[in-house]
Amino acid sequence: GVTADFVLQPGESATFALRQVEDWTAGDGLLSTPINGEDALRRTVEFWRRWLGKSRYKGRWREMVDRSALVLKLLTFEPTGAIVAAATTSLPEEIGGVRNWDYRYVWVRDAAFTLYAFLRLGYTEEAARFMEWLSARVSEEDGPTGPLQLMYGIEGRHELPEVALTHLDGYRGSRPVRVGNGATAQLQLDIYGELIDSVYLFDKYGSPIHYDFWRELRRMAYWVCQCWEQPDESIWEVRGGKRQFVYSKLQCWVALDRTLRLADKRSLPLDRPRVARARDDIYEAIMTHGWDAERRTFVQSFGSSALDASNLLMSLMRFISPTDPRIVGTIDRTLAELASDTLVHRYELGKGAGDGLTGKEGTFSICTFWLVEALARAGRLEDARFIFEKMLTYANHLGLYSEQIGASGELLGNFPQAFTHLGLVSAAFYLDRALGQGG
Questions:
Q1: What CA–CA distance (Å, rounded) separates 428 from 426?
Q2: Which residues are CB-contacts of 430 (< 8 A; sequence separation ≥ 6)?
Q3: Closest by CA position to 112, among listed 198, 191, 193
Q4: Per the confidence metrics, is the pTM higher than 0.85?
Q5: Protein fold of 62-348+362-428
Q6: Does pLDDT of 20 surpass 80?
């Protein structure tokens, strides 16, 4: 290693600079171009202040929204516009457990939700860069699971084999440490809704999409018309077998609904009767097979009794009125059965919602923010504000979150997590606006 000895007198300072050197053999050493550390720091601070100054958010909890915006920007890969789910691999969902995954990739779902957050904050340039990356993906040939793969490398790589690094102990003895992600080969139908919704919003708040991109989106919509009835592994990437997940059906409905809206808005060519018929069939299927009339709640999958917090997105995605008795019942059941001191689990482990994995996990932070927004949309502003502001206390000293929160309040899972921070941004936007309208 490299070492150095130096002496500092009272009032003096020293700067340490970490720098990537492309070619040591060519004599490109650290001393060939000295770095003015103080100047570099000043320019860095100025850059981030200018960037934050572009944010349109001026409401309550602005500091936390700004911190979340910074996280989302830092999870963006500048050369391609790709947005990764988190910056780390294998930080455990349970200390000493096996639920340790590699999140250093671009999930279509997570990145699409991040694009929503960028657009709300006014960062259209970041949204446009991701659209460029996405456009390249949708124009590729179909893979074994359909027009899209659920995740990619930051440069667009398809192969992400999951390997356990058995020689590593992992964080606080949490093994295995994994690189790559085996969920890559899964079928997750929900990604089409999240993707097409993000395109719809970008076309509305960013820039109009071009015709060749529309042709690819239309092709995906027709594929959804044909394949929405298939079972899949859905948003939580279960490893216990495919099911008819309600959330996946919801997002298939979103995919077709937004396709119709985009076609009508831009007068784009589309087999409207075919798409509208499939959209309506999905709606009826969810209401018939995804609803538990006895318990007054939507369930995780057709025919099951298990709850799933992802169903809170029904009102957020405009599938159902936010005050419809069915979503109100789902909110109440979520509070009663999935919430632990206002923090929300994504589903009930061991109650018909088995995910094929051993061990436990913490509460899922984005689910808590979904609950906040669902409550706010239902007009329950006092409850929403209480849960939101309590959730803010679980951030670390830098205002950052991981994926989950443990029973004692510790952060669990990969860190920092885009999902959690984009959920915070969305909940803050809606709750702040609702509180303003309510006086």
A1: 6
A2: 373, 376, 377
A3: 198
A4: yes
A5: Glycosyltransferase (1.50.10)
A6: no
